[in-house]
Design a protein that fits this description.
Strand order of the largest sheet: 2-1-3-4-6-5
Number of domains: 1
Order of helices and strands: HHEHEEHEHEE
Distance between the termini: 60 Å
Shape: globular
CATH architecture: 3-Layer(aba) Sandwich
CATH superfamily: Vaccinia Virus protein VP39
Radius of gyration: 17 Å
Number of strands: 6
CATH class: Alpha Beta
Number of helices: 5
CATH topology: Rossmann fold
Strand content: 15-25%
Helix content: 10-25%
Amino acid sequence: MKYELEYFEEMLRRNSGTAKRISGIRWKFINRVGPKLVLDYGSGVGWFRAFKPEGVMVDTYDIGEYPQTGIQHSYYDVVCFWDVLEHIHSMKEIESILTKTRNIALTTPIKPKKQNLKTWKHFKPEEHLNYFTGESLNETFEKYDFVFLTGGYLECPPRKDIFSAIYTKMRKVILE
């Protein structure tokens, strides 16, 4: 076997029950929009692609040096930001990606209303550059003409305060 993307993915599949479980939750979640072509933006080591269902193509992109496909298509059914948004400096970094899809799927920590930010588990000033509430997350995507479709705390447990969401592009109706 060659030490390429396929080998790397096989090793991922063999060696992580937890990643398989979380990837399964994520695939079930985004299946609501019936994706056939997906971009996993900020793919990390590639767990999500390694556990993809048959019949779905997944491109992977990350700033890390993990094996990845890169962004190979001009349009995707869904662009996924699994544990990504809290790490980017500015939404401007992903604006061009937001034009390549009708649907966004994501996970990100959501600060509970009564939780003090500085004592919160996800308060990591050197690592997390953005902190969201449900309202601020919606406002962020509304600026790019996306509306909240569905969401919840699907990965909790085993995770804590991690919100999953799907946003879809607003349809603009032109009346003549």
